[in-house]
Amino acid sequence: MARMLSVVGARPNFMKLAPLARALAARPAVEHVIVHTGQHYDPEMSERFFHDLGIRAPDENLEVGSGSHAQQTALIMQRFESVCVARRPDVVLVYGDVNSTVAAALVAAKLGTKVGHVEAGLRSRDWSMPEEINRVVTDRLSDYLFAPSRDAVENLRAEGTQPERVHLVGNIMIDSLVRSLPEAERLGAPAAHGVTPRGYTLVTLHRPANVDDPATLAELLAALALLARDEPVLFPVHPRTRARIEGSRSGALTPSSSPPGPLSLSGEGDVRLLPPLPYLDMLGLVRDAALVVTDSGGLQEETTYLGVPCVTVRPNTERPVTCTHGTNRLVAPRRGAIVDGARAARAAAGNHRGPIERWDGQTAERIVAVLVDGVRYD
Description:
By secondary structure, this protein is an alpha/beta fold. It is 46% helix and 15% strand. It is built from 16 helices and 13 strands. The protein has helices at residues 11-25, 43-53, 69-87, 99-110, 130-141, 150-158, 172-187, 189-192, 208-211, 214-227, 239-246, 279-288, 297-306, 321-324, 335-347, 363-373; strands spanning 2-8, 30-36, 60-61, 91-95, 114-118, 144-147, 166-168, 201-204, 233-236, 271-274, 291-294, 310-313, 328-331. A 7-stranded parallel β-sheet has the order 3-2-1-4-5-6-7, with helices on both faces. It has a 6-stranded parallel β-sheet with strand order 10-9-8-11-12-13. The chain is globular, with a radius of gyration of 20 Å. Residues 250-263 have low confidence and may be disordered.
């Protein structure tokens, strides 16, 4: 019996794990072990994501919690090594680009265990992003490189990766979206938040480059207030962003309570700062939004698949296919650039080139076919 061991640590990983866990469970000759590193350590949110996505409870939880990049990576390596030795997997599967990804890949490679990287080949070429370092190192260590798009394949080939290691399997995030969308629609998230379909802007912002600098954060908040003059702005606030907003001296904030109480913005318009939302609620809001403003990688992909206009507040993206074939456009973290980008994105709604190759909800089955049946996907 083949033994596959998946390592996840952050909520985006869970959405990539869920389809593959189901596909592996359908193979009787495969044992699948799930290890949660605890990199995102809010038990309530993690458990809710596992429940909403239909993932069984992890077999191991390393409970590493927060820390600097070095501290977190080192602690994951230290705790995962004993698990890997005891479980003796044939392949360690890692997902995305978080610290859990590179830490588990390093441990497995040093133990002589094969590594499969789900979402391989993405490149922003921005070495100031810790995620870019994690991506490149993980890809160099991996025996199976599961690329989500044709440009990711080309990135790997340009770096000299052996072609037999690379498989164009498609975007596994879309697998989760396709499966979850009917239930997300039934929840009626827009109505639950007092807004109408295509009558609101949805926002997520959490990257350090955007929220850690007070001046940049003030620009972002001012942009949201301007967008809210036209329609309500719903902003589920990441804990990191909440802390920065509450500590802001920009003058853009009115007094607010501690989590999970509401925050509010001063000025005109209807900006609603919400607590973090479960996956299905968030997906329902993304589906019916008139516009999404974000710095999240996953939302660039989801909006592209759904045809929802998206403005990404970043100078670059590791998912350029969402700009060339999808609904995404990049803007600078300045109020004028964001407002102008929002207008242009909405004006261009419906003009994207999609669908993108192999973004069809069947990525997990392709990955399992590679791992178990030896199939190749070029």
